Structure formats: C-alpha cells, structure tokens
C-alpha cells in the first residue's frame, strides 16, 4: 500500500471521526450536564436530515436549507424537552431510557406518515459535488466540507464552554449541579438551552450526513450505537473526550476496514481472508472500547 | 354472599349461552369458506420499504380482482416480522394455529423464510415467497409447501456476470455485504464472469461509510465494478461512489436490487447510466404491466419497485391456484398441485414454475435513465437469459 493511499485512508478516518463528533458532542453534553440518557438523540439527527432534504427545493439552496433545518431541529428540541423530558430528570436512568425509546418510535412513525416509507433524495450542493485535488490526492469536496464543519463546531464549542458565561454555568452544572441550583441559577432555562443546543448539533450532523448517506426512517438508530461507543471511550459528559473518542473511532474503523482484510490475506487463502478480515474489521471499534475501558474505566477524559 | 352467588350463577350461564348463540348466528355467513391469506412481511425498521412495497403490490392485485382471489371472499391478515427470524417464526405459528390461514406470503428476507419453513410445512400451510429465494429451498431442501413467485437469488447476479463478460470487461472489482446472500451474489456473478477479479470485498451489513473501500477500488484501477447493496446500503454506496469521482473511471454494475426504484428515488442522477439485471422492469411490454404501473402510481403516489411487482404476482399465483381447485380449500394436496400447475399471465407475461417450484423466466438487462417526467427510473436494455432456470433445481427431489 503506497503512501498516498495511506494518507487518503487517514483522511477518511478523520472525516468519519469528525462526523461522529457532531453527533457525540450533543449527546455527551446533555448527559454530562442534565444527567439524562437521551436515546432519541438519533431522532433529531434524522429530523435534521429530513428537514434539510425537504427545504432544499423550497429555499433553493443547500446552505439556507441547512441553517433553517438546524434552527428548527433545535426548536423542536426545546419543545420536546418542555413537553416530554422535564418530568424525567429526577427519575432513574431506566425510566429515561424507556421514555426516550418511546420518542424514537414516535418520531420514526411521524416521519413515515409525513414523508412516506421510501428513502428521500438529498445531494451535495453543486459547488461541492465534485472532487478536489490535494497534492495529487483526489478527494470528494463534500467530505472536506464535513471535515471543516466538524472542526469549526469543535472550536466553537470550546470557545462557548471555556470563554463565555453560559459556558461557565454549563461547566459548573456538569461538575456540581446541586451547588449551581443552590446559587440561584435558573436551571430549568439552562437545561432547556443545553438540550436545544444538543438537538441542533444532532440536526447539523444529520444535515451534513444526508448528502453522503441514505435519508431514511431509522437512520438515527444506525449511527446512535457508534455515537455511544464514542462517548463511552471519551468519558461520558466530556466534550474533549467526545472529540478524542470520535477521531479514534473514525480512524480505527477506517484503517481496520482498509488494512485488516489485506493483512489476513498474508496468512490464509483469499476467500477466508476476505470473510474473516471483514468480520474482524467490524469488531475493531468494540475491541478498542474494551481496551480503553480496561485501562481507564471512566473513559479517556473522565468528568467529575 | 353465597346465596347471591347461587342465584346469579344460572343467570350468568344462560346469558352466556344466549350471547354465544347470537355470536354464532352473526358469524355463520362469514364462515362460508373465505380464503385467509397471512401477510407476514417487514413493516418497520430500515427494511420496511421493501415489505411495504410487497404489501401494496399484493393489495393492488387483490383490488384488480374485485377483492376476491380465485373468486373467494378474501381476508388478508397482516403482521410485521420486524426483519427478525424469531418474530417471523412466532407469527408463522400464530397464522397456522390461531388464524388458520390457507396461504402465507409477504416474506422479504431469505434467512426469515428458512426459519419459518418447518412451521408452515408442518401446519400444511402454503408458503408463497414474493422475494426470498435462497439456494437451500431451491435445491436439496426444496419443500412441497414452498413456492417462489419472484426468482431464485443467484439468477439475478448470474445475469450480470454474463453481461459483464459479454461486454468485454477483463478486470472487475466485486463488493457485497458480509452475509449469506452477499456470498451467493458474488458466487452467482462469478459463475458466468470469467475474467480477472481485481478485488473481492465483503463489508459489514448495514454499513454507512464506504470511503475506505472506495479508496481501495480507486487504487486497484479496475475497468468495471460490481456491487450488490440492497436498500439503504445501496443508497449510501451509490452516492459515495459518484462523489468519489469513480463513476467516470469505472462503470458500476449490479443486480436490480442495487438499482431499484426505492434506491433511485433517493440517489437521483448519481445512478444514471448504471446497467443492472432483473426479472421485471417498469417498461416491460405485457398487457398487465402497463396497467399495474399506472394504477400503482395513482393509488400510492410513487413508482412501483420490483418488490411491488413481485407482491402483485404473488396474488395472481394464489388466485390461479384457488381457481384451479374451484375454491375447494380443504384438500391441501390438490391445492398444491393446482398451484404448481398454475398458468396465468402475470406482469412478466405467461408464468410457469420449475419442478422445484421456482420460476423459469427471462432475466433482463436494465439501464437507469431519466424518464419523460424527470423521474429517474429503469428502462429495458436487452434480454440476458431466456427461460432461465436456477442451478439448484437438479438437487431437488420433487418432480
């Protein structure tokens, strides 16, 4: 395998990682600050993708559709938080899992009623549909856009959390919620904003993933499992951990798929190497998670 | 307390008796031999698109036949298998024991069909598959109660292998999901393609990102790519294949499942020009097909897929079998014989079954084109096999 191909696979890994980070950031934020397990996070990802797909023909462009879709998804998050989740904060995690699983079923059926059972159409904007040449490497332009968006979100979240007053409250809430309440901070408002931010990020992930992946009912659950792996590796509640975990999972998954079947072929015949390599590649990230947890039971960047 | 109960008891009894008598009276006319069909299919989860198309195709055929299959009052009992074998077996049991259906149909997935077969055969219930056609049920494990109205899995991939071979491609890269149907797919392709294999890759079932595999395809520089990716996997793969700029470098081929209507609506122009193989096409020129496509569009507001066409033909096969026994559903041996001998004009023209109860039929080459109304769809581009039978029929003991 030559250097250029290896570089391309590395870039693919980073890009997948960044896409996972967009999902994981919102999920880990909500869990870290609100102590709420939100299985329906994938539903907001799906809603973001569907809204973008539906708004592109109406607004006449990908970027305006994306912006409006992300805002609407955040707004939907506010409503869901107020209507369905507010009463669950004091219940135990199992009740939350049950209730948010119910939300998954609700949103899947709602989307099926509104948009029909067949996956719908969403392509990258014309300007980003082709490939670009990076020092001899042809790479899909839209994947670079995903990479750029993810890094921008990472920087933006860091600024928000490390440099603003809201960020200070978020950090304080993540470390010691009771103390923040005791100091007279309107926790209800803070929680609503955090949840809306998490949903907006999930919506952004959906909008950016839509042109690359199938926009279909159930798309949220497929990516949710990977997202949970990411935040468990990173340390639940930590944005920094989510970023590190996401890049790690993206790179390990991509390089596993790229290298394992080829290395199995060195020691066994082609047919069994193809099957065994594929099976091993699909296990790679779970083995990674087990290894990380064995060494650091609370993840790479534990909170609290 | 006891006295009260003693007085009450006879009264309750007589009330019960009266109620049951009324219930019997009310039920009597309905019980006069209605045909009960169990529709076990996938109605939820990522695979639901296929099951919903089969159900809707079946419903349209029933409507075209005036709500009566074989002239009998027909009751369709719907159930969602959730694409899970254990759920499917439970539903098969329920259909046999409680609902006492004559025929079960609707099944999408080969692994579910294999799991349900023993239950349905033991319950003497006919099993008409509108999609799943695993090699096992076509060959050594063929079953007198199993009928396939669609295709045997391998045959569609064989056709693509033959086309790619005949078109003169010498170095082909192969991709499929890592599960039994994926392996059958590439085996079927290689049964007729004799050139060099540039690479053979199995990916995870339900995989989302194909960047790693596509980078390797590009590095191997094949002159064509064959990919079997049904449903959502196909949408992911085709979008990413085009975005990686590979469409210009190597043409993409696949079985009809990779380029069917459920996928085309979601990928649009990215699939244009792709050649694929199937036993049916929306523009297949038979009298029944044009009406089917028009009516399906009018009723369900979308273009039919091959799964919808298969659901339609499943209803026609059941209709022909029930007509063949003049509505006498009691004698299961006669009913099976009538189904095996059924002659009818389906969406693919005159329909006939092989000795293993799988179709003998033409497999066509299709091309993805933009229709007059701007919708991306399939168009016939030739016939690869005429009256093609599957490779497993010789292993089946049935004559």
TrEMBL record, chain A:
GO cellular component: plasma membrane
Membrane topology per record: Multi-pass membrane protein
Source organism of the structure: Azospirillum cavernae
Family note: Belongs to the binding-protein-dependent transport system permease family. LivHM subfamily.
Compartments where found: Cell membrane
Keyword Transmembrane helix: yes
InterPro entries in UniProt: ABC_transp_permease, BCAA_transport_permease
Protein name: Branched-chain amino acid ABC transporter permease
Keywords for this protein: Amino-acid transport, Cell membrane, Membrane, Transmembrane, Transmembrane helix, Transport
GO BP term, example: amino acid transport
Lineage: superkingdom: Bacteria
Transmembrane segments: 14-37, 44-60, 66-85, 97-122, 142-161, 189-217, 223-252, 273-295
Any one Gene Ontology molecular-function term assigned to this protein's record: transmembrane transporter activity
């Amino acid at each position: 395998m030559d250097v250029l191909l290896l570089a391309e696979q590395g870039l693919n890994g980073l890009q997948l990682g960044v896409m996972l980070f967009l999902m994981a950031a919102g999920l880990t934020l909500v869990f870290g600050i609100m102590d709420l397990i939100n299985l329906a996070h994938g539903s907001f990802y799906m809603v973001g993708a569907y809204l973008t797909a539906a708004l592109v023909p109406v607004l006449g462009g990908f970027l305006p559709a994306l912006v409006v879709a992300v805002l609407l998804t955040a707004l939907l998050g506010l409503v869901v938080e107020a209507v369905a989740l507010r009463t669950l904060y004091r219940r135990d995690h199992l009740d939350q899992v049950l209730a948010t699983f119910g939300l998954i079923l609700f949103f899947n059926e709602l989307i099926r009623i509104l948009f029909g059972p067949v996956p719908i159409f969403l392509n990258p904007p014309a300007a980003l549909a082709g490939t670009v040449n990076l020092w001899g490497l042809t790479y899909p332009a839209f994947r670079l856009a995903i990479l750029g968006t993810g890094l921008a979100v990472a920087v933006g979240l860091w600024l928000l959390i490390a440099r603003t007053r809201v960020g200070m409250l978020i950090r304080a809430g993540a470390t010691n919620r009771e103390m923040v309440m005791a100091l007279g901070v309107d926790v209800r408002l803070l929680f609503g904003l955090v949840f809306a931010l998490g949903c907006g990020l999930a919506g952004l992930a959906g909008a950016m993933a839509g042109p690359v992946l199938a926009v279909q009912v159930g798309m949220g659950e497929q990516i949710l499992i990977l997202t949970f792996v990411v935040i468990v590796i990173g340390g639940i509640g930590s944005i920094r951990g989510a970023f590190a975990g996401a890049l790690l999972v993206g790179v390990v998954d991509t390089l596993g798929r790229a290298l394992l079947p080829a290395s199995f072929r060195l020691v066994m015949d082609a047919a069994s190497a193809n099957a065994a390599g594929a099976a091993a590649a699909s296990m790679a990230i779970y083995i990674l998670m087990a290894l990380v947890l064995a060494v650091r039971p609370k993840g790479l960047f534990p909170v609290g | 307390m006891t006295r009260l109960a003693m007085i009450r008891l006879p009264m309750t009894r007589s009330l019960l008796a009266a109620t049951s008598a009324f219930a019997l009276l009310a039920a009597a006319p309905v019980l006069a031999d209605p045909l009960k069909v169990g529709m076990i299919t996938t109605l939820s989860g990522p695979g639901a698109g296929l099951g919903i198309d089969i159900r809707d195709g079946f419903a349209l055929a029933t409507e075209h036949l005036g709500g009566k299959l074989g002239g009998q009052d027909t009751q369709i009992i719907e159930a969602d298998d959730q694409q899970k074998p254990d759920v499917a077996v439970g539903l098969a049991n329920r259909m046999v024991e409680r609902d006492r259906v004559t025929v079960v149909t609707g099944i999408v997935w080969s692994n579910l069909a294999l799991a349900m077969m023993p239950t349905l055969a033991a319950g003497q219930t006919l099993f008409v598959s509108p999609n799943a056609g695993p090699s096992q049920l076509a060959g050594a494990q063929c079953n007198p109660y199993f009928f396939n109205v669609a295709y045997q899995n391998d045959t569609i991939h064989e056709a693509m292998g033959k086309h790619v071979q005949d078109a003169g491609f010498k170095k082909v890269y192969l991709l499929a999901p890592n599960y039994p149907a994926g392996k059958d797919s590439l085996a079927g392709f290689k049964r007729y393609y004799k050139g060099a294999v540039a690479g053979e890759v199995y990916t995870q079932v339900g995989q989302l990102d194909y960047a790693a595999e596509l980078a390797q395809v590009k590095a191997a520089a094949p002159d064509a790519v064959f990919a079997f990716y049904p449903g959502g996997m196909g949408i992911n793969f085709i979008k990413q294949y085009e975005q990686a700029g590979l469409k210009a470098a190597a043409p993409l081929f696949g079985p009809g499942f990779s380029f069917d209507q459920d996928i085309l609506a979601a990928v649009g122009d990215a699939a244009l020009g792709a050649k694929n193989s199937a036993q049916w096409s929306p523009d297949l020129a038979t009298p029944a097909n044009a009406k089917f496509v028009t009516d399906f569009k009018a009723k369900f507001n979308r273009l039919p897929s091959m799964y919808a066409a298969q659901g339609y033909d499943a209803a026609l096969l059941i209709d022909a079998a029930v007509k063949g026994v003049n509505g006498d559903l009691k004698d299961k041996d006669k009913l099976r014989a009538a189904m095996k001998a059924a002659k009818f004009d389906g969406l693919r023209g005159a329909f006939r079954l092989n000795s293993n109860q799988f179709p003998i039929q033409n497999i066509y080459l299709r091309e993805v084109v933009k229709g007059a109304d701007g919708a991306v769809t399939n168009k016939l581009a030739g016939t690869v096999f005429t009256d093609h039978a599957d490779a497993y029929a010789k292993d089946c003991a049935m004559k």
